[in-house]
Design brief:
This protein has 11 helices and 10 strands. By secondary structure, it is α/β, with parallel strands linked by helices. The protein has a domain at 281-320. A 4-stranded parallel sheet has the order 1-2-3-8, sandwiched between helices. It is globular. Bound molecules: guanosine-5'-diphosphate (GDP). Residues 39-40, 131, 140-143, 145, 163-165, 168, 170, 204, 229, 231, 234 line the site of guanosine-5'-diphosphate (GDP).
């Protein structure tokens, strides 16, 4: 088997580990997608978020500046930068108005990335990516939280789903298509900043409706709202205009909103069905504590109650 990926541990808050990773690999391109990426947690961990999402980018830029100015650098910037803006749709000229510690940290790394391009002539790009989803999305994000719950409700493993604000609007795209445009930016002869989005916007409620419908269920029978899941400040309406990426890079998204929801619901249904058949496979849900509870409460194939907690998981994975 060809080894396509080599993993090297590094930490954005630790300059030495980044220096080591860059020295060892001698890369042509660096894609900095690492972050404390959950907006909700950034309100609880503002300083950690600043350290990783803000200063982390500067550490990379400094390493490139001192070590090898030919290394190209991609910075994962974000539609969250637009925050409280009332301008819709948002493009590369829309003023940023961050509305969370996450967005404030990302605003700093956005400007540093652009500044190093202008000040030192580095090849640096900011991809201002709007929300991009896939079956690999973390369970803390609303899309995957919904599709994972839909699958469990369909299979009788969960009774209801609690959500926060159902009225915020997001421009949700399909992550694999967005990764392609990151690469396209880095192959262009001229480094620049680009908005990447579908141009279509939907409420959290619409996503919920569509996800339950994809499993043949009515969302109204299962969803309740919980004010504790609302944020101190939220971003109400994101909708991107990706004309520049289309004109300069020839990029256009193809997966529609409806198709995206179906892909995610079907993937989660498939995973939970495999779990119910007793299959053990690499899967993220067991890493989340609330999922562990469900997993350990489920009666095993042999008809006995499965051992609980970590022990149960280790037994299922045949690790003793
Ligand atoms: P974000 O756009 O990076 O913040 O992505 P999220 O998926 O975390 O949140 C998208 C929107 O869904 C935000 O406006 C949240 O306030 C809203 N939302 C409503 N209920 C929930 C929930 O239960 N979990 C999360 N993560 N977001 C929720």
């Amino acid at each position: 088997m060809i080894r396509k990926v080599t993993l090297i541990p590094a930490d954005l808050s630790d300059t030495t580990s980044l220096l080591e990773a860059v020295t060892v690999t001698q890369p042509h391109e660096i894609y900095n997608l690492a972050a404390q990426s959950f907006v909700g947690s950034s309100f609880d961990q503002p300083l950690f978020t600043t350290e990783v999402d803000g200063s982390g980018a500067t550490r990379f830029l400094e390493i490139i500046r001192h070590l090898d100015k030919n290394i190209k650098y991609y910075q994962a910037s974000t539609s969250e930068l637009y925050g409280a803006t009332t301008k819709v749709p948002q493009d590369e000229n829309t003023p940023f108005m961050p509305n969370s510690p996450y967005a404030a940290a990302k605003l700093y790394s956005f400007h540093m990335t652009r500044m190093y391009r202008r000040a030192y002539g580095l090849f640096t790009c900011n991809g201002i990516l709007f929300n991009h989803e896939s079956p690999l999305r973390g369970l803390e994000f609303v899309t995957r939280k919904i599709t994972n719950s839909v699958a469990k409700i369909k299979l009788g493993l969960q009774k209801e789903l609690s959500l926060g604000n159902l009225h915020t609007k997001r421009d949700w795209g399909f992550a694999p298509e967005f990764v392609r445009v990151m690469w396209l930016m880095m192959q262009h002869h001229h480094p620049d900043d680009y908005v990447v989005a579908t141009g279509e916007t939907h409420t959290v409620k619409e996503f919920t409706e569509e996800a339950f419908a994809a499993a043949g269920l009515n969302w109204k029978d299962f969803v309740k709202t919980d004010p504790r899941l609302q944020r101190p400040l939220d971003v109400t309406h994101l909708c991107g205009n990706a004309k520049k990426a289309e004109q300069v890079l020839g990029w256009k998204p193809e997966v529609t909103f409806k198709r995206l929801v179906q892909i995610m619901v079907h993937a989660d249904l498939d995973r939970w069905q495999r779990y119910q058949r007793g299959e053990v496979f690499p899967w993220d849900a067991p890493n989340y504590s609330h999922e562990m509870d469900i997993i350990s409460r489920t009666v095993s194939r042999e008809g006995r109650a499965a051992p609980t907690g970590i022990r149960g998981l280790l037994e299922r994975l045949r690790i003793r």
